[in-house]
Amino acid sequence: MRCTFLPLKARHMTKKVQFKIDHMDPLGQGVSKISDKIVFIPSTLPGEEGEAEILKESKGVAFAKLIHLTKKSPDRIKPQCPHFETCNGCHYLHTDYNHELNFKKNSLQKDFQKFEECCEVETLKAPSRLAYRNRVQLHYNKKIGLIGFHGYKSNRIIDAKNCQIFDPSMKEVFDDTIQNFQSLLKGEPLKGHIEIYLNGNEVKRTFNKPYSEGGFSQVNKEMNQRALDLISNQLEDSSTEGLILDLFGGSGNLTRGQKNSTLVVDIYPKDKTEGHQSFLNLDLFNENSLDEIIETVDRRAVTHLVIDPPRSGFKQLEEYVEAFRPQKIVYMSCKPSTMSRDVIPLQENYKMQKLVLLDFFPSTFHYEGLIVLERKTN
To answer: 187: Cβ–Cβ under 8 A, 6 or more apart, which residues?
Structure first.
């Protein structure tokens, strides 16, 4: 639904409402029905009641921030991070990890409720709820002397000096950045961002560069390995003569180490070959991309299709499946709702073999969903 939000123009127009939370939405917000509006309130849990302040609203929808609770859920705990109430980085630290996973599992299951033969969601937990991110981005404003994360529904900069979400090996550089950002940013714009990330065992820092400029990589190393193990198990049944087609494959992360020949397709500086992987430089959203791949490979040789598209998904998936007729499809996505949209049209010829929640981003509403589809024999 497309909404036009009407920001409050002055402090005296502040609108406060009484609420009761009915359920959680996929973004980790409590949902309450107040008069004729659906109101979304972060940092709340089902069954909780209290008072909130409306931040933005449009016809039928409003976003609010919690003021205080008059009734607390028995599932509420004290957040481990002092910034939780104001920062927009984490969404579930006010409840325990099992409840967080349950909210995510319900969200993923709901995305696939239209799939006729849907599997029960399997959950792969993260080994650590905090101290896992190997990449963080800080926003700054030199004029007013602020650096930190963005707040909820705003570009207001929130203090982040005690953040616990990133890998501890980054702490020294993170703390130095917080303390000395003014001197570090000489010659940089008045407003912008700083990215701190792990490159192997080295901590690096960039100023006002595109996110993941050096190439996309998963921010949770341990969960990435669990995903690789899972995908490898799904591909090991393929014939050594079969070809794996890895769409939006980036550096070949998901199919690296496979015994089969693999064509990894994405946007690269140039085509290349590494081990069993060949890399094709191609924009998959280009209307001629399918024809170009068909010219490159024998379509009958493709036995497995692996796909990890951006959040927008890949609406052309059905065309690719019709062209290559793979025996198995492994689709991983950071936005399962678009993954569901893409695979539901395939269920006439494919059955769901596995539906998995991979918790790459504990403490937040984000996660990776993975579905395995197998071609029907009849």
So the answer is: none
Residue 248 pLDDT > 90: yes
Query: How far from 327 is each of 49, 149, 217, CA to CA, in Å?
Result: 51, 45, 28
- Residue 319 sits at the vertex; the CA angle it makes with 318 and 323, to the nearest 5 degrees, is 115
Q: pTM of this prediction? A: 0.90
Are residues 309 and 216 in contact, defined by beta-carbon separation less than 8 angstroms?
no
Domains of the chain: 1-76 (2.40.50.140), 102-128+220-375 (3.40.50.150), 135-207 (no CATH)
If 0-12 CB within 10 Å is exposed, 13-18 middle and 19+ buried, where does residue 125 land? middle
Residue 62: beta bridge partners? Answer: 39, 57
Higher pLDDT, 162 or 309: 309
Buried b (16+ CB within 10 A) or exposed e, 61-90: ebbbbbeebeeebeebeebebebbeebbbb
206-217 confidence digits (pLDDT tens): 999 987 665 567
Q: CA-CA distance, 137 to 342, in Å (whole number)?
A: 31
Asked whether residue 132 carries a pLDDT value surpassing 90, the answer given is: yes
Token pair in block for residue 77: 């705990």
pLDDT in tens, 334-363: 999 999 999 999 999 999 999 999 999 999
Q: Are 160 and 166 in contact (CB under 8 A)?
A: no
